[in-house]
């Protein structure tokens, strides 16, 4: 199958859109000015049930609609187009809307970007001690865009909103200076949009460097869902798979972090063949995705998703909450409901599916799991737990929030028992005040712990 990509400029070339009314097509064109839009022939021909497109999960996942925008935002853009405003006016309005959509949740831009010799590395995020995120410049697009994507700024024309770097030498220098890092996550966008040659330059730089402390290379990708032919019949598919084999043979672990939002993405023969080809290289595939209203907010869907993944050799990893950015108002599921979905889906699986953890919020202080609802001293509370944290002392530490069945995010929660703030908030304020100093303290603590363990 040969890839054909569709975006705003050739939206009308999608044959299946003839099923929609003229008004519906116009609404997609308006919404796509704000919510980045891109899809391809594999998605529209194999994954979407066009006979019932209005409620089809993959249609909703790929095509921006009026419902994904707040009414005032939609009407602003629609009115400008209707009156024949020039491109500059429309662009300015869209840029203003983007800034209202919380383009970088969790303090990513302010507090996750490290420095090297007083130079900001705006293609790296280093929030957790052991894990570094790397955004290669050539990998900051995808074969198709998810309408829920929390990294939607990567797909805009606003350079100041993007993470990207094309200098592997700076990456290597930073890794050598920070020997507490064991895992690098190559992310985007989608690194699998890169040619094998481009990806190979980054991978080879990592493998050729003296980085014995780096044990795992992760690749975050949606390509198995949206273009599995990347590992089957693309001109450089064999070269790509050979890169994976090279990582495995080097002694480092390669974890392919796949995003699957619905079981239909695992239903084609192409995706099954692609999964098999990756696993033959020695890499492992782990799956993650947010729980999304109008897409997969059902225990039955998640249960089927996890079971099918295990059947195909994929390890279920995370169920996320949709981040507080973009179209969260449309996709958001209350925290309590998400926990109930997770609990019920989890309860109906065997042990091999129970590697999955969730539901999880990726917040400024860290990855926080909603682990349950209970009553303590006649007060109904939500039990939360840090899986990852800016301060490693918080990791695996549970804490309690006042029960709130409508809460969508951490900011909506209040501490239980009338406390003024959660246990971590005072330290978090200090961390956010001076992220670099805290990073230095964390590194120093790492080396102190190593010395203690070696002497003990």
How would the blueprint of this fold be written?
Layout: E1 5-7, H1 22-31, E2 38-40, H2 41-46, H3 57-62, H4 71-82, H5 87-100, H6 108-111, E3 115-116, E4 119-120, E5 124-128, E6 131-134, H7 168-177, E7 183-186, H8 196-208, E8 216-221, H9 223-226, H10 237-249, E9 253-259, H11 269-279, E10 284-290, H12 299-312, E11 315-320, H13 328-331, H14 335-347, E12 357-362, E13 366-376, E14 379-389, E15 398-402, H15 425-433, H16 435-455
Helix pairs in contact: 4-5, 8-10, 12-14, 15-16
Output the keywords.
alpha/beta, disordered C terminus, 2 domains, TIM Barrel, globular
List the total number of helices: 16
What's the average pLDDT? 91
**Measured on Cα atoms, how large is the radius of gyration?**
22 Å
CATH superfamily of the largest domain: Aldolase class I
Total strand segments: 15
Largest sheet: 11 strands, mixed
- Could you name the CATH topology of the largest domain? TIM Barrel
Percent in helix: 25-40%
What is the end-to-end distance? 59 Å
> What is the SS-derived class?
alpha/beta
| Tally of domains | 2
């Amino acid at each position: 199958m040969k890839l054909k990509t569709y975006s705003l400029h050739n939206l009308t070339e999608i044959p299946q859109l003839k099923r929609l009314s003229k008004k519906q097509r116009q609404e997609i064109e308006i919404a796509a000015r704000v919510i980045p839009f891109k899809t391809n022939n594999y998605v529209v021909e194999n994954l979407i049930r066009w006979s019932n497109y209005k409620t089809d999960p993959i249609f909703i996942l790929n095509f921006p609609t009026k419902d994904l925008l707040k009414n005032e935002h939609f009407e602003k853009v629609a009115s400008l187009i209707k009156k024949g405003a020039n491109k500059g006016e429309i662009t300015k309005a869209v840029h203003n809307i983007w800034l209202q959509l919380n383009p970088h949740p969790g303090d990513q831009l302010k507090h996750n970007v490290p420095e090297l010799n007083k130079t900001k590395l705006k293609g790296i995020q280093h929030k957790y001690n052991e894990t570094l995120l790397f955004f290669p410049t050539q990998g900051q697009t995808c074969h198709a865009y998810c309408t829920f994507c929390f990294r939607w700024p990567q797909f805009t024309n606003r350079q100041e909103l993007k993470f990207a770097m094309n200098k592997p030498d700076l990456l290597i220098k930073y890794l050598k200076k920070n020997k507490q890092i064991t895992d690098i996550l190559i992310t985007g966008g989608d690194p699998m949009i890169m040619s094998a040659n481009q990806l190979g330059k980054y991978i080879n730089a990592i493998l050729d460097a003296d980085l014995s402390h780096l044990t795992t290379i992760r690749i975050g990708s949606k390509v198995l869902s949206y273009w599995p032919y990347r590992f089957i019949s693309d001109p450089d598919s064999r070269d790509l798979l050979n890169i994976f084999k090279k990582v495995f043979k080097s002694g480092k672990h390669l974890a392919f972090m796949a995003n699957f939002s619905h079981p239909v993405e695992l239903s084609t023969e192409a995706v099954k063949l692609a999964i098999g080809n990756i696993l033959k290289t020695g890499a492992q595939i782990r799956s993650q995705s947010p729980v999304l209203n109008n897409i997969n907010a059902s225990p039955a869907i998640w249960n089927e998703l996890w079971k099918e993944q295990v059947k195909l050799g994929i390890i279920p990893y995370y169920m996320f909450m949709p981040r507080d950015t973009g179209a969260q108002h449309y996709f958001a599921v209350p925290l309590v409901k998400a926990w109930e979905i997770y609990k019920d889906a989890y309860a109906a699986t065997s042990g091999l599916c129970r590697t999955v953890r969730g539901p999880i919020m990726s917040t400024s202080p860290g990855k926080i799991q909603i682990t349950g609802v209970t009553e303590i001293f006649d007060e109904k509370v939500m039990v939360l737990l840090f899986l990852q944290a800016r301060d490693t002392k918080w990791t695996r530490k549970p804490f309690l929030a006042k029960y709130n069945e409508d809460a969508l995010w951490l900011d909506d929660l209040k501490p239980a028992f009338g406390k003024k703030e959660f246990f971590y908030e005072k330290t978090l304020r200090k961390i956010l005040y001076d992220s670099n100093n805290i990073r230095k303290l964390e590194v120093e603590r790492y080396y102190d712990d190593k010395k203690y363990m070696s002497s003990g």
